[in-house]
Amino acid sequence: MDSFTKLFNKEHRSELILLVLMIVYLLLGLKTPDAVANVVDSLVGRLSIVLVVIFLFLNANPVLAVVAALVAFDIMRRSAETTGSIALQAYAPSEEKKSSHFTAFNQFPYTLEQEVVAKMAPMVRSGMPLDSASYKPVLDNLHQASSLHEM
């Protein structure tokens, strides 16, 4: 209660005015302008707001510092709404969501084709020499095309 009564002293008049402005900002719920929102909704903007709040906690009235922390949180939230980064985080699919969708789409039952191919005898066994084939390949008419081996 002592810190609240100190706000009404003549030497702390500027802190009282700042407190009133912050409370008005919180109560009115004004939309953050685009130019301010773009600055605040960046790493540098958020970091500077946090540093200002820490400075107020260290050097100003505790009531003013608590209200400043609430205003800082609110201005960051409103700036994110104005720039659209909240909607981007909420509705843009993440890699985990995309991956889960792809794995769900790629679950196929064991087909008849896979069963037949699995039962077929292999053409080449590893480590064993190839037997000579019972057929002889025949080269069709080249129609005056050059052979690849001639180059």
What does this structure look like?
The chain is an all-alpha fold. It has a domain at 2-85. Helix content is 62%, strand content 0%. It contains eight helices and no strands. Helix 2 packs parallel to helix 5.
Rg calculated over all Cα atoms:
36 Å
Query: Tally of extended strands?
Result: 0
* Share of helix, binned: 55-70%
Poorly predicted ranges? none
- How would you describe the oligomerization state of the chains in this entry? single chain
Strand proportion: under 5%
Structural class: mainly alpha
The general outline is: rod-shaped
What's the story with the biggest beta sheet?
Answer: none
Mean of all residue-level pLDDT scores: 82
* Series of H and E elements: HHHHHHHH
> End-to-end distance, in Å?
96 Å
Count of alpha and pi helical runs:
8
List the helices and strands and how they pair.
Layout: H1 2-6, H2 13-28, H3 34-40, H4 43-59, H5 62-83, H6 85-91, H7 95-105, H8 112-119
Helix pairs in contact: 2-5, 3-5, 4-5
Index terms:
151 residues, rod-shaped, mainly alpha, 8 helices
Gist of the model:
This protein is mainly α and 151 residues long. The chain has a domain at 2-85. The chain has helices at 2-6, 13-28, 34-40, 43-59, 62-83, 85-91, 95-105, 112-119.
